[in-house]
Protein 1
Amino acid sequence: MSAPPIRKPAGDVDYGVWGISYSKYRRPEQSIARLIDAKLGSARTVLNVGAGTGSYEPVQTRTVTAVEPDATMRGQRPQTFPQAIDAVAEELPFADGEFDAAMAIFTIHQWKNLEKGLAEVRRVTKGPVVMLTQDPDHMGEYWLADYAPELIARETKRMPPLSRISAGLGAGPVQVIRVRLPRDCTDGFMEAYWTRPEMWFDEGARRACSAWSFIDQAGQQDILEKLKADLDSGEWDRKHGHLREQESYESSLVLVVAGKNGAGK
């Protein structure tokens, strides 16, 4: 009997290697969760596309169907959450208008065909579509750009322009909400540690942020050595220490919200 074919990663990152610590470091930030939940409106049935480990799924108040193509991510979902379906955004195995709403959290930059994926999400959703992503026009403002310009440049190229997302969601208006991050943000994506630069010395934190996967070990070591030197000398605080005094930070993170046929709510 022949062995089953090895499935390639659905996106540009192998989460079988880089996703093993997501459930520990990528815990939902409650301020973001409340915003997402509010924009889902009165929906009772919600599709979560590119669901990962299940962050931000409103399983306590709504019926959630999760789609996630990566086995490592599916395996880290809480046992109390619905089992995720092995599928990709571009080929959703659901009927037209099957769900009241849909959500897609930190995933659209992984889709191989953005327009096809957005069209599929619109096809199966009657009501609002809520997407959390990053605005590439603002990603270079994060302090890490001083130490890892290659990382920031690579990550910026991965993120689709907001105009492209809006166009793919339909002809109507699409609402874009800039998200402010608390100083103790619990969801460890790239800008979560805006006031905690020391977190990047934790390998688990880096492995829970796919941007670091594009930098080899030698490159990562160079970045960390430069950062440590500036932290030890006080240079980081001279440049960015004002961030430590802030309670929140307006990052490149945005919530994109479209209603039926792209009519923003």
Protein 2
Amino acid sequence: MTNLIAAAAFFVLIHLLISGTRVRDALTGRIGDGPYMGLFSLTSAAGLVWLGFAFAAARSAPDNDVLWGVSTGTRHLQLLIQLVAVTFIVVGLTTPNPTSVRQEGALDRPGLVRGMLRVTRHPFLWGVAIWALGHLLVNGDAASLILFGSMLALGLFGTASIDAKRRRKLGTKWDAFAAQTSNVPFLAIAQGRQRLSLGEIGWWRFAVAILVWAALAFGHPWLFGVPALP
């Protein structure tokens, strides 16, 4: 279990304490954006592989205590939660967004704030957070708490980290964008700063999300070794 804790801490902290802070600014100032992105991508990939192997080992360890039970109801609820999570992730990955890697230039596009950006300026990370929360519902062991809990923390705190990074780099451009959007999903809509427009998101994105969700749900036993369907 110690190895899993170390892997989870490493993966989360390199994103929150390096990628999202002035440490990144100092590193890019010394070696440039391109080399930094290459090194950080390799480090993240290595951390993710470490996390995966550590989780697999911890699940069969004798100290992997069961902390809460799972019912048929929570397994059905999990499927719905994962549909929401996959939708946020798919839409987030396919929508031009200045919070995404190397997409700061999107701020110069006229009419940028539309579709999913009316809902949240961090759709991908909120999708990751929702994905992690859903998995916590149906995985009540200590190893799963560490893995999915760390992903939940990264998804939630990562949004604030990116906001701070973009504000330092983009200044007033970012402030104008942030004033039109919200971090928390639907908050800008609830406050009257935006309106919901599902058509702007693109129905093809919803269709792709459903297909990805179905593939993951039915293919879960072959992909991850455990069934997702009740």
Protein 3
Amino acid sequence: MKKFIAILLGTAVLCGTAAAQNCSQFVNSVNGKKLTYINQDAKGNPQMTAVYTSTKKDASTISTHAEISDKNGKLMGTGDSEMICDGNAIKVDMKSFIPASSMKQYSDMKISGEAKYLTYPSNMQTGQTLDDGSVTIEMNGNGSPMTLQMDIVNRKVEQAETISTNAGSFDCFKISYEATTKVKIAGIGIPFHMKITEWYAPKLGRFVKSETYTKGGKLMGVMVLDSVK
């Protein structure tokens, strides 16, 4: 019995060490990276640029600073978020999922709010259903306070695919989900429903490509990773 317990304890220690090493590898590989995305309309015309700069916060956490600029390079807004590795999944701060269409409406935008996370399991597989997410974010655009409520539901892993962009080729999982956003000003807001398909790259902890559709299936825009430095 003592030998059996010792084996169990040893296995637990090894599993914990493996998880820590995996997180360390992920955090160190992402630390210092600058990812630049190009947002395009349905016709492929550039609309905005989003630059995410990642910095190691601790052994399991990456802090990310976002800068959003219009097609002419004028800064529209900034925001800060986090990615956390727990050995079993990468948890991405939902503030980083604010739709480009919302960002486009507000200049000098600052984002704050309680950190809530969308989970991407380390053992992701085709056909898997992923956890939903919901977050409320306080924003200040042009001196007018507003609240953005966002709900992400029906997340499903469709298949594994390799995606190539100007930034290179990435092994990804194609994930589909539905998103509802509601921007409230003075307590009044109208919900906007979207369908989204993203190609998530585990080694980046982020998507490489994302397509946004109306509830009826009409393409609204595409966001593509343009460079990694």
Protein 4
Amino acid sequence: MSALLPHRRAGSGPVLVLVHGYLGGSAQWEAEIDLYSANYDVIAPDLPGFGAAADRPGCDRIEGFAQAVMDLLNQLGVDRFTLLGHSMGGMIVQEMAANHADRVERLVLYGTGPLGAMPDRFEPLDVSRQRLRDDGVPDTARRIGATWFLNGEEAPGFPAIRDIGAQASVQAALAALDAMASWDGRPALDRLTMPTLVLWGDSDRSYRWQQVESLWRNLTAGELAVIPGAAHAAHLEKPEIFHVILNGFLAECADRPAAC
């Protein structure tokens, strides 16, 4: 059996899995782990090649990331869980939910969409790939991380995102761009039948409204929540609103389990 994927875990109760995205890491969920561990068994993995798992080979397919997270949950003996995925992590949890719908109680798709190529992204993936080769990971993490916030590098949450992103290996950062470019989750959307929250900051420069709307409208049981005045890292930019929305979705299912 392979060694456990590095992860953070706290609390007890129903399992809530937090999956970070490109140039992210489990450390970005510090506030959410502190908050939700009061009522949930919170598990936040570091994806292969990122964060505390930077010494592991990165995946060049979203399916590979999804399998890595599933392997961790299996090794931890977790059977049923709620998934929250941010950005590329939203692609990963869509893949997990489509293939393991019987194990996913609820799904939160945050700052993400159904197509990895990300039409209308702040820059094409090919440009990110070339600039990563030219500039290296730390400068790329700084540059891309700044686009996650309305106030760029002046945002209070920016230093943490910059530093977390800089931990990634070059191999993993390049491979993940290939993973996103080749992934299309649209054919599997009809398999996402569990209650699903689509959560989006209205100034997100990675996923624009057209992609978010396409995701929301093609889900069987999808709800949409838009956070005003927030970009790609709404959980750091508008944490109070982010948590109120997420609390409402989680409580909805806790109060009406038969509906979830």
